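fwd from M.: "can u put these together and see what the complex looks like"

so here's what she sent:
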Amino acid sequence: MTKTIAFALYPGCTPLDLVGPLQVLTGLTAFDPSYEVVVAGADTRTPADTDTPLRLLASHTFEQVPRPAVLVVPGGGEPTLAALADESLVGWIREAAPTADVVASVCSGSLLLGAAGLLEGRRATTHWGLRWMLPAFGAEPVAERWVESGPVLTGAGVAAGIDMALHLAARLAGEAVARKIQLMIEYDPEPPLGGIDWDSPDIAGFGPMFDEMVRTALADQPALLARVTERTGPAAGDPR
Amino acid sequence: MTKTIAFALYPGCTPLDLVGPLQVLTGLTAFDPSYEVVVAGADTRTPADTDTPLRLLASHTFEQVPRPAVLVVPGGGEPTLAALADESLVGWIREAAPTADVVASVCSGSLLLGAAGLLEGRRATTHWGLRWMLPAFGAEPVAERWVESGPVLTGAGVAAGIDMALHLAARLAGEAVARKIQLMIEYDPEPPLGGIDWDSPDIAGFGPMFDEMVRTALADQPALLARVTERTGPAAGDPR
């Protein structure tokens, strides 16, 4: 029986969060036809805006994919935080999770897993600028590129989804297949300015921006805002 | 005056080719509002299929963006090769190029630049599996992550578009801005199995697959097929 890898699509998400792992795991289906990939959204006719000028269309509705073997939830900025209160999305994650082998997220997508109650007592990660929010969902924040905790696999910000998905491909189909996917998408990174300098003064400087983004996105959700701003975790913009 | 960065969208392209640089250069507009980003396609209502289950919608028609300052052309597999004969796309590239400061491509998108006559006498790159095709368009094939030759900037396969776009962001707006974009998309790569091993026996083994892909895609274009299969360059699947 074909196992379904379902990506969640919702308005305002960051397209690279979705498309990085989507390209990797669609590559997986070429080498291992026991998997298929779908993109699930509230409907398949209304394009979802993103935080770029590109609009995206799902291949399936949430209802059409009730029991995926693998779930991948992308993140984003303000719209993702607002989506913490979107029961059509969070409800689908909550209902699909118990029968899934892997529930994965990229970037702030892990907060959606948290809203679905999936991070209680788990180690998890998210975008560095929002890691302080994880304890509000019962999670222990971890500064790693991806974090595995039982069936839950959370990736760090945006581009980390590619690394996480290659790790997942190796787990699902073996290292040889993961290497072939990596070769086909020529993922042999050469960041022109090198890696990120986590000691850069830029980083803490972004803290107030993330804090403000959360407050704006959750202005209509006072209970949720109070919950996440209790701040049991590190401060906004604390990289490590 | 706002300078426009226009991404080309066409049916069957590889979404990561487009979305990697799109996420980077949309990030640029947040730090340098003298730039705007658009996604240009034949029309804005018909979703473009991709080589994944995701469908994409353009924000503008080609006609609406006749003179972008920067052009970015993504690649893909068979549909991109078939698009070498798509005059609505290739004609737009040809007409927009003379007034553009930068004409960029990702992966096999460089072949579309070639079809528009933009690679004559230039060093260029593309996906490793198709680099042998570049001499048919008058280009000298180069095995680098990205290659600059006057206004033409070509990137290697798929994921190379992220590196190329960060380089371009630094060129357009300075290294400090490029570093901020890199931080926001958390591009601090950790490929789980390390980088690509270019000496792997897998690589040459893919040669016949690329050769067959080209022959299938250009079956209806005998003149173009004859031109690209004259093979003045390296063999299909020759990585270096």
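replying to her w this: The beta strands of chain B are 3-8, 35-41, 55-57, 60-61, 70-73, 102-105, 123-124, 140-141, 146-149, 152-155.
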